[in-house]
């Protein structure tokens, strides 16, 4: 069942984000299990595996940030998905960022948008925890197509939502 579920879910194109926490040991992680929950009050959720460093980081922090990646940021997505990258502040050394004014969490330069959130709830579900955050601040960044993940590869949302919309695999 696990492999068939993975295969079916790979056909569902998702946006790509980096979720981050600040503090003495800042941490970032690429994720695609992220969505809006509510507009009133503004809330989002992200699903984080129990075995990840981010699980402990977000569980121990009252606040986190989300950077929505653009199609030209696949190197950043790969960096924050690499389990062998340095931990703590060192993982941000090669990436442009600024601390969020509400969370202190890194907001990545060049992102299409940012959210700063206060952790309000968490729900255990299988091998992940669903973290729900109330949005404290939202901001737009660069214009351009979004970075998608589809069938195990990065793709671009060039033109999605228009008559000429398409998903283009990035090589």
UniProtKB/TrEMBL annotation:
Residues covered by the Flavin reductase like domain: 9-156
Keyword presence, Nucleotide-binding: no
Keywords: Oxidoreductase
Family matches, as InterPro entries: Flavin_Rdtase-like_dom, NADH-dep_flavin_reductase, Split_barrel_FMN-bd
Superkingdom, taxonomy of origin: Bacteria
The keyword Zinc is annotated on this UniProt entry: no
Alphabetized Pfam families for the sequence: Flavin_Reduct
SUPFAM superfamilies the record matches: FMN-binding split barrel (SSF50475)
Annotated protein name in UniProt: Flavin reductase family protein
Source organism per UniProt: Streptomyces cheonanensis
